[in-house]
Design a protein that fits this description.
The complex is a heterodimer of chains A (479) and B (179). In chain A, helix 1 runs parallel beside helix 6 and helix 3 runs antiparallel to helix 4. With 479 residues, chain A is mainly α. Helices cover 69% and strands 1% of the residues of chain A. In chain A, strand 1 and strand 2 form a beta hairpin. By secondary structure, chain B is mostly helical. Chain B contains 7 helices and 4 strands. In chain B, the strands form 2 sheets. A two-stranded antiparallel sheet of chain B has the order 1-2. A two-stranded antiparallel sheet of chain B has the order 3-4. The chains are: A mainly alpha (479), B mainly alpha (179). At the A-B interface, helix 1, helix 6, helix 17, helix 18 and helix 19 of A face strand 2, helix 1, helix 3 and helix 5 of B.
Chain lengths: 479, 179
Amino acid sequence: MQGRPPSVDRLKPAVLALLLAALITLPLADSVFQVPIQVSDSLEAIVIGAKYPSSWSLLADSAQFSSTTFRPMRYQQARWLVQGAAATGLTYNSVFRGVHVALMVMLVLLFLVAIRVRSWIDVAAFAVAFPVLVGIHTFAAMLQEAFPVNHFAEVGVCALAVFVLAQQPPRWFFPPLMCLLLAFALSVIESGAMVWVVAICCAAAGMRGMTRSSVVAATVVLGVYLLVRNALDISSPGIGGHGSGFGGTFYSPEELTRRFGAHPLGFIAYNVAGGLASLLFSEPRQGVYSLASAWKTGGPHPVLTINLVASIATTALIVWYGVTHLRVGRAAWSDTDRMFAVACAVMVVNAALNAAYIKDEIISVGGLFYAVASFIAVRGLLETIPQRRRVASALIALFLMTDAGLWTFRAAGVHYVLRYDAFKTRNDWIEVLRPDKREDWPTDPQELAITRRIRDEVILRSVASPSFMPRWADRYWVE
Amino acid sequence: MADGFRDSRFGIRDSGFSIRAGAAGFLAALPCIALAAVSAWWSAGGLVGRGLWPPDEVTLAEAIATRNNAEALRLIAIGADPNQPSRVRGGLLSEGYDVVVTPVEAAVGAQRADSLRMLLAHGAVIDERELRILRCYERVRRDSGVREILDIRATGEPSTTLGPGPDCSGVRLPSDRAD
């Protein structure tokens, strides 16, 4: 190896990590692509986006489509993609689903760039953390639904991009680029504020690429966004704006208003704590603790046990790393420690966004950073092995292999979840343009033409039926 | 070893990375490597239409029996006759043996009022003889939505009480028609 530049030695582990990621991502991309365009949340946005006479009028009007949301780019993107389909001759399904696949690939690539695989020990840690990234329930949430583009995946891409930039030496274009990413994320969904949170956390942890000017610029963008919302009289959804769980039960918006509307503080605290617990332990889901009702059904479902054990093991590892590496004080932190601190802080702040209701998608950015933290913690543990006794080393190897095995099983289950979703979504289209309910059909010819075209595309594309998939899979992969 | 490099049994060569750490790292990476290998197999299979869980070839009745209305509609769109009996493999409407049924019989067997409604809207015809069979079949595979549709066709109004129902003597149910 003598005489060979160190960068060449670093290349091999990076290439192997990329290869592993590519092999696992490829069929996953196929599974994501097979989920058709949805009726709910997607069709309306596509039709509205396509019908407007100009992008400017759409942009102006979409600011006031809702009294609780400000998502102008949601409709604009749908319009561009419809136009893209017309320009290229591709099907709507190919264009919209292709964008979703592209977003997933970007998430994977940005994760790879963020964790910087340079050595063989990094490859081993990556091999544990990558299934965490794909297998955590918040990642599947970014793949299952689209509105018609998954805005949470877009926010995830922007947040990871800012995190990657913060690791680099500062450059003149970083502040405008970060502002652009933040502005875009905020224009698709309110959770876009997580991009600002990542920037602030990076600055607080002392990451070198996050300069004072970047923080100030990003804060100005967020301030302008809040002012615009205020000027347009757009409020945030409160308790009862969305259904959510409490204890072992899921409540409708009306029930939540009745139960907690008058005294919401306890419920808000429950949601914030629940959001963090969901990231760290995979429980609760949508605010519901399945464990709470497990005794009624004769013990926990296998999927619950698998998710819980995998998450507890990884969270314990993350806690171990935090306790052993961060207590020395910020000034003594290594670059890796700073990354780790950012990842943990992002998870905690992300949980706070669940104040009104808990949803897997809302904590999806936290899920990405959970995988980053797990990578750093696993690498940290592997690095201690040369100083440990043989028995301890063997136990660590066994622990990591078991944990990685459980996460890998969860990651494989994403295919099943997506197949199931594809089946359900395709069958939802049966209720659209029913021949026995012509009175419900759109009267606008353009709207009817778009709806008919998407419906025909979806119906003509066969997807797997859960009836012909393994029966045991429901118990092990679906919560 | 001057700069801390060391070879492990796995051919791993890195600064400060001991043989034991290499072995532990390799074991930890094994599940991911296995998933990557299986994923490669799925991808390769996908190129020839045999990847992970590809769509199954089903008959129209089978699509209905598996609650796959979208697939049923696709089959009708490409020319399948909604009145033609076809094979439904064992385990879907019957335990352990295949049956030959019409799509509307499959809808009743699968307790799917929505499927029945869809078939009727897309050209399925129920004559008197078939209606009797379907009503008797519904008595075995009870579904209030299906019963309402069938009762309206038989009597002009939905039944509100559990009355005597149709005369099922001598009726051979679709689930008894083994292929």
